[in-house]
């Protein structure tokens, strides 16, 4: 028999279960896709206008639906290596330099940054000076290194020390 006390407990439990379900819903976010760079796009790190500069560039889709643009792969990693950036990141993209030219990378040549391989200590300049050349395959990166030299790194190997080494190399070249 359902007593008044049992009825109140059941009713309270159903109400709490309903309320608990409301808090777990997440807003649907638009698809995470790259887009062509526009003339007014600014780098999320340095604020520089991006269009017209050579070398690989990057874009990052955030969990809140925003798209960040970067003038170079190096600036993308500067942003990614900040402690509060990774939780915001949905997907990062870089130019596949094995599929596009250095002087004017095609906006159709983006690949996920996590699957790319990178060549550091190479002589070609990006928008902000030395940068990490990004490739969709190790074979393409090796072919690039046969012509330009450099050192091959995976996404996981890029850290603050790698970026500092790039900056030091640029200072040495300009002195």
Automatic annotation (TrEMBL):
PROSITE patterns: PROKAR_LIPOPROTEIN. Transmembrane segments: none annotated. This is Nitrous oxide reductase accessory protein NosL. It comes from Halomonas tibetensis.
């Amino acid at each position: 028999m359902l007593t008044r006390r049992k009825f109140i407990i059941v009713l309270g439990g159903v109400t709490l279960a309903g309320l608990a379900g409301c808090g777990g819903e997440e807003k649907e976010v638009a698809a995470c896709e790259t887009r062509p760079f526009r003339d007014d796009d600014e780098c999320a790190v340095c604020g520089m206008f991006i269009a017209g500069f050579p070398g690989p560039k990057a874009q990052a889709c955030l969990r809140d639906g925003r798209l960040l643009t970067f003038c170079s792969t190096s600036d993308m990693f500067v942003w990614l290596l900040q402690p509060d950036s990774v939780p915001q990141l949905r997907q990062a993209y870089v130019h596949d330099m094995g599929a596009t030219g250095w002087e004017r990378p095609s906006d159709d040549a983006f690949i996920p940054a996590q699957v790319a391989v990178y060549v550091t200590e190479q002589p070609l300049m990006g928008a902000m000076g030395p940068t990490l050349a990004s490739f969709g395959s190790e074979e393409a990166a090796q072919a690039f290194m046969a012509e330009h030299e450099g050192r091959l790194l995976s996404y996981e190997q890029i850290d603050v020390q790698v970026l500092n080494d790039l900056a030091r190399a640029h200072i040495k070249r300009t002195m």
